[in-house]
Design goal:
The complex is a heterodimer. By secondary structure, chain A is an alpha/beta fold. Chain A has eight helices and twelve strands. Chain B is built from nine helices and 13 strands. Classes of the chains: A alpha/beta, B alpha/beta.
Chain lengths: 240, 233
């Protein structure tokens, strides 16, 4: 059996049960969440993050679309309160965008400011962050929300390289990573290459959820499909 | 609960009522208004701006399609006189067109000119505008009408970055920005990216206003008309 971790999304783990897994997100795998704008990708990421924290799995959270304060507010709308986890340092945040607002941000032990345009600085901080959460627990999660701003600020090929390095780092340290991306903002070839970097892809189109999981050792490709809704508790996947 | 601010169109606020019983534009979030040409995107912006000014919420207005005088006249046509707010300095205008069409005009502390071909200068002016307003007011509105002209005159990826910076600046100090954009005027990839950068998406197609995305509520729509006082649903 392939080991999995709980996604935190009601209905998701039940949907992804198969002969080789008990459902959920395969441990130490990488997952791309993609789809058109405003279909719940960030909500999925936040739900995944928060559920990990509740299960005492620390999280490395790289935010590039919203400043970290905004992320915290967005999560509060769903009653996901992360302040405690910031305080006990089980949440490590790399804020790649707040500098753009022109405000000075003081780094703390586990909140670091970087800038999407400066990919080498991002990578250095990701390296430090990975070690930080790994020391807390080798069962950790990592969330990157999202690639959009990275693509707006850097050449496409460079983003792909940075992403590749990021995913490798997390996997080597034993973490389970998810990355959000808005479909259709880069050329189709690069988009295909992007998808091929991940073990799993999840497509959210506003109504349908489509999950593809590739298990290398078993040489299996499994598809799951269902519908979902965004509720005031986050995403809920319909049980088929 | 997400605080909301009045859009300036009472029926729109009703349309966007959330479970907690309040409607309007979520405060301190960012909104994209888009649709085909001549469907009322600018008029929506006027109403949004004017509503704020009437409630003592200042506004940072970046105009790229029409010069200051034209803006004044257009708003006046819809019975939204802004002269008073220019005088009391609650309306801060960055005018990127008058340099070309009207020659240099009298600049004041709150009426500044910039150049559509110079996004860096626009960003500098946005920065000082935001600073000027947020020193006195904890909350304010901002309008960028429209991103289409910016995209047409400059490298599109650069403008996306400028727009992102603009939204971050305004949101960072408690402001509520809206951006207008004419559908299909830029590449589809750019359009998708633009949509992914904002919190709320409102489409005006000439007949129907469609709230495609808004924090806290699902998709909604209603018919609208443009009357003497602006948009009514």
């Amino acid at each position: 059996m392939i080991k999995t971790i709980e996604s935190g999304i009601p209905g998701f783990d039940e949907l992804t049960v198969s002969e080789i897994t008990k459902g959920g997100i395969p441990e130490k795998s990488s997952t791309l969440i993609y789809g058109p704008p405003k279909t719940g990708k960030s909500i999925f990421c936040n739900q995944f993050t928060y559920h990990g924290l509740l299960n005492l799995e620390p999280c490395l959270y790289v935010t590039t679309d919203h400043g970290f304060k905004q992320v915290q507010n967005n999560m509060m709308e769903f009653q996901w309160f992360i302040q405690n986890y910031i305080q006990n340092q089980s949440l490590y945040i790399i804020d790649g965008i707040s500098q753009l607002s022109g405000k000075k941000i003081e780094d703390t032990n586990n909140i670091k400011s970087s800038f999407v345009r400066n990919s080498s600085d991002m990578m250095v901080k990701i390296g430090i962050g990975t070690r930080f959460v790994y020391k807390k627990s080798n069962h950790f999660r990592s969330t990157l929300d999202s690639l959009n701003t990275l693509f707006a600020f850097n050449p496409q090929q460079m983003v792909i390289r940075v992403l590749n390095a990021y995913l490798r780092r997390i996997t080597e340290a034993g973490g389970t990573s998810i990355v959000a991306y808005t479909e259709g903002i880069i050329n189709p070839n690069t988009e295909n290459m992007l998808k091929s970097l991940f073990d799993n892809t999840i497509k959210l189109d506003g109504q349908n959820i489509q999950i593809k999981s590739h298990f290398e050792e078993e040489e299996e490709l499994i598809n799951y499909k269902s519908t979902y809704k965004i509720t005031n508790k986050g995403i809920v996947v319909k049980k088929e | 609960m997400i605080p909301r601010i009045e859009s300036g169109i009472p029926e729109f606020d009703e349309l966007t009522l959330s479970e907690s019983g309040i409607g309007g534009i979520p405060e301190n979030s960012s909104t994209l208004i888009y649709g085909p040409p001549k469907t009322g995107k600018s008029i929506f912006s006027y109403q949004f701006t004017y509503q704020g000014l009437s409630n003592d919420e200042p506004c940072l207005y970046i105009t790229t399609d029409q010069g200051l005088n034209q803006l004044k006249n257009n708003m006046f046509d819809f019975q939204m006189p802004i002269e008073k707010y220019i005088e009391d300095k609650t309306l801060f205008i960055i005018d990127t067109t008058s340099n070309i069409s009207e020659g240099m005009q009298t600049k004041t502390e709150t009426i500044v000119s910039s150049d559509i071909n110079n996004p860096t200068d626009i960003m500098v002016k946005v920065g000082s505008g935001v600073k000027y307003i947020c020193k006195k007011y904890p909350r304010f509105r901002s309008v960028l009408d429209s991103s289409t002209t910016l995209l047409a005159y400059n490298d599109t990826m650069l403008i996306l970055r400028v727009l992102k910076a603009y939204l971050m600046r305004v949101n960072g100090v408690g402001g509520t920005p809206i951006i207008t954009y004419t559908e299909n005027s830029a590449d589809i990839m750019i359009e998708t990216m633009l949509k992914s950068m904002v919190d709320n998406i409102i489409k005006l197609d000439g007949k129907t206003v469609i709230v495609e995305a808004m924090n806290g509520i699902g998709k909604r729509s209603a018919k609208y008309k443009i009357k003497d006082h602006g948009i009514i649903l």
